[in-house]
């Protein structure tokens, strides 16, 4: 309670509802709702799976962008946190999060200067590199800062976004890092983002196992040269139970598992059964117009949902068979399956988010609930940080 009082006036119009009975139903919308019970079950399920398989977890904060969620992942046994951008790492570090890995190259001089400033207070900070000129720039900056920077060599495993073009280049970069007095070779990264949402589990498995070959080759070549590879990091929610089968990954960069989304619910889990994770993130909305047959208008539109993937999926509050359509910047359309179905204005409903990472980036706060009670409001500290 003391923390909330200290932050009075900063948590938005729903702050007065914290700890009020049945306050979920009274939330001013549109609002991003985080089901803490479901999220905690997801964190526990991933931790248990990783422990069973003998691998570590370094969850990706690009999904949640939250100090509070990162702390809970660490408390459950994660050895650190991944960040897609330097800005995310800065935001989490300011919240006391350690064991950070920046999974995208940091190349601009101004950003390298920020990276070195962040390194001064974070000895465990790691950053990826996939280019010799960038590696040399990082080494020079670290030397000028009188510190040693941990570097992970990024290997392209088919996504063609970042990473060395082949294993030989990765080995050369790793050798250069080993020879540098201002760099520490921390390991290898290979992230197959293009594989994560292949719908059929068998096809996803075959693609992932095949595409990881350059990463395995780089690891094996370094071992032949007597160079220790402390970590091999990668995988994602879609391949967490695939990439552990081949004895390559030492840690999992899973992200979306913590809240899930429509994209992953449309992907087949192993054996065609249910995922071991459940939806924990919703956009709560209100019906603002019901003047026409067959549909109603809600107050959550393009500004409330990521639009790079599937449409939001209704979770509660609408008749069975209703589906969502974008209806403008501020509005969505509820299209009913039956001609005589209606919703009264003021009716509340919730949607499972379509793609969690960019949807979270549209909001300032999580409205944390347990059951039907708003129990806290958390800032999304790394929102929009680059």
Write a brief caption for the model:
The protein is 29% helix and 21% strand. The chain has 386 residues and is α/β, with parallel strands linked by helices.
Q: What does this entry look like structurally?
A:
- The structure is a single chain.
- The protein is α/β, with parallel strands linked by helices and 386 residues long.
- It has two domains: 2-34 and 276-379, Beta Barrel (Lyase, Ornithine Decarboxylase, Chain A, domain 1); 37-261, Alanine racemase (TIM Barrel), CATH 3.20.20.10.
- It is built from eleven helices and 17 strands.
- The strands form two sheets. Strands 1, 10, 11, 12, 13, 14, 15, 16 and 17 form a nine-stranded mixed β-sheet that branches. Strands 2-9-8-7-6-5-4-3 form an eight-stranded parallel β-sheet.
- It is globular, with a radius of gyration of 22 Å.
- 45% of the residues are buried.
Question: What's the structural blueprint in terms of helices and strands?
Answer:
Elements: H1 2-6, E1 31-35, H2 36-53, E2 56-57, H3 67-75, E3 81-83, H4 86-94, E4 100-102, H5 109-120, E5 126-129, H6 132-144, E6 149-154, H7 167-179, E7 183-190, H8 201-211, H9 213-224, E8 231-234, E9 251-252, H10 262-265, E10 281-289, E11 295-298, E12 313-316, E13 323-326, E14 332-335, E15 348-352, H11 356-360, E16 365-370, E17 373-379
Parallel strand pairs: 1-16, 2-9, 3-4, 4-5, 5-6, 6-7, 7-8, 8-9
Antiparallel strand pairs: 1-10, 10-11, 10-15, 11-14, 12-15, 13-14, 16-17
Helix pairs in contact: 4-5, 5-6, 7-9
